[in-house]
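EI: anyone free to look at a 352-residue chain?
SC: sure, send it
EI:
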Amino acid sequence: MKFEESETIIPTSTVGPIKINYEGRGGQCSVPLATFETPLWASTKRGALVSQTASDGINLHVIDDVMTRSVILEAESLRDALQCQSRIKDNEKNIADAVRKTGKFAILKSISAENVGRLLYIRIGIETGNASGHNMVTRAADAVIDLILSECKNMKYVSVSGNYCVDKKVSAINGILGRGKRASAELIVSRDTCRRILKTTPEKIIDLNVKKNLIGSTLAGGVRSANSHYANAVLAVYLATGQDAANIIEASQGITFADRFGDDLYFSVNLPNIIVGTVGNGKNLPFAIKNLTQMGCFPEDPNSAKRLAALIAAAVLCSELSLMAALTNPGELMQSHLRLERGKIDCGASRN
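SC: here you go
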């Protein structure tokens, strides 16, 4: 089957510089944001200006890196399913060896199983190097299935994807265990910076975070998520760097934390599901190569995908902080959209 390709253009601007401290090294970064919601550029730029006032800038950490795939096997009885589950726990070394043979970057990090009657759901987590890892973890899962079925004769294959992964759907398990890169970012904002740049106070942001992000999200039935708009910045970077944009469903999960730090504001964002790569399909397109290079995410660097996840967290913090500040002031959100979108005012970012 042949497919006809056409070009889709999304407005893209580079926002920065953002002052960061990543892996103990200070520096500056700029982040490309591809979006039709152009006020995001100005809002993220304001957060970037705030980062410049902090002595360390934004502290970034990538805490974990695991891509998951769940499989379903079916036994003849509950007892057979539980026996197979026990065998998986005892056979982790052989499973790890089977995963390693599927690719030089595939490393087993976790495997767990849960039964529903005679059905067995097995969640496999692997480290995938600089690839986002969708295909890599599926290939590893195929190998794990073959190994388990060769040893558990009373089991049969149902599916290589069992929705216990969880791929491109909101879930509690991904918020708890993570899928992709788990990243956190923090920033200390002085009271003076809150007043001059954000036009608010630490107390107003802290109070709003409790009443909007925590209580409001709980009232709405949010799943392991309490933030204002992580999806905007994450999707914008995903589109600018050739990522699988459907992963925004998981990546929008996360929790914003705001507190007093002496007389200043402590602000952090925490994202358990950043699914990105610097190699693979989409990353070889000219625009993606350009934007990844600009961010210092070179595919030959074995840690470049983790750096990309860290810079996404930095962009999320900048945009989240700026929006939260705007929401503390009546009318500011609507007025800024009218000025920037209808008035065609410069959004304060470098257009690509």
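EI: Residues 12-64+182-351 form a domain with the 3-hydroxy-3-methylglutaryl-coenzyme A Reductase; Chain A, domain 2 fold (CATH 3.90.770.10).
SC: 👍
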